[in-house]
Amino acid sequence: xxxxxxxxxxxxxxxxxxxxxxxxxxxxxxxxxxxxxxxxxxxxxxxxxxxxxxxxxxxxxxxxxxxxxxxxxxxxxxxxxxxxxxxxxxxxxxxxxxxxxxxxxxxxxxxxxxxxxxxxxxxxxxxxxxxxxxxxxxxxxxxxxxxxxxxxxxxxxxxxxxxxxxxxxxxxxxxxxxxxxxxxxxxxxxxxxxxxxxxxxxxxxxxxxxxxxxxxxxxxxxxxxxxxxxxxxxxxxxxxxxxxxxxxxxxxxxxxxxxxxxxxxxxxxxxxxxxxxxxxxxxxxxxxxxxxxxxxxxxxxxxxxxxxxxxxxxx
Length: 315
Ligand code: FAD
Description:
Blueprint: H1 3-9, E1 14-19, H2 29-39, E2 46-48, E3 54-59, E4 65-70, H3 76-87, E5 91-96, H4 102-114, E6 119-123, H5 144-155, E7 171-176, H6 187-200, E8 204-209, H7 213-225, E9 232-236, H8 242-252, H9 258-265, H10 270-290, E10 295-299, H11 304-314
Parallel strand pairs: 1-2, 1-10, 2-5, 5-6, 6-7, 7-8, 8-9, 9-10
Antiparallel strand pairs: 3-4
Helix pairs in contact: 2-11, 4-5, 5-6, 10-11
């Protein structure tokens, strides 16, 4: 089933979460155990993230550096299919423009279609670790709105080489940033770029994580004011460690509210941070639930137990 329909049919806010494929060479058992934990809470669907290859520089014998790309987390398509068919729950495969030509993207979409995956979260992707700027492939997309357009064409039976005719039937979600995307000049420009994705055919938006609900509510209002009418699903992440505190503002360009930072500064262990993170996410979720948001999307990042406690307290 497709996400827009699932949302339209729901009488109350839905619970959903996102999983990151394991590092290459690891087994999927810990991930499957996380899913088993969260399946008890009846998720409406499950997202599977997608990761571009990273760039590493290796020293050669002559002392010069050799630039090598390494794909660390392959397997999004296979995992999305495995999860959907094992747990009988719809999955959303993230698809990124980064590192992919239009033909490679089309091939991935064809595979997803064969496997019965009907939901795509269309993203540009970040620059690979080690690189500062996003550079598209020579025959790739610069912005995710172009990927949305490509998927819409496939949904109309228009393939790149005009040789096939069976139309796909993907639903398309896109990313939104209540605190602005890092590269955008300002929030207004970013919102207008978000509108381009929706005008191109995206049917719903999932937000970047935020820790202050006021930012989400203001974002929804600003979207509505410029004519974005699709559902806007808030994304939440329970904080879990000191590492999170160091990395989240840098990586995701979001603020941690003063009240939260005061609480976090009063403790020293990761266990205490996890407890504060869970309580904070429960309060955020309760308010969002009461505001009748379409769904709450949890960034689990391997912390299924934390998410289970939040969902137990809220849904
Ligand atoms: P875009 O929509 O292309 O926007 C990128 C930047 O370009 C923005 O600053 C925007 O304002 C600007 N822009 C857009 N269109 C135009 C235009 N036409 N002209 C000029 N400027 C424009 N990353 C991954 O690698 N894998 C994942 O699985 C993944 N999952 C995510 C899930 C969610 C819910 C979210 C919120 C983010 C996720 N990301 C993921 C991160 C995302 O890939 C990055 O934030 C990336 O930097 C931007 O992706 P985007 O699709 O929002 O890009």
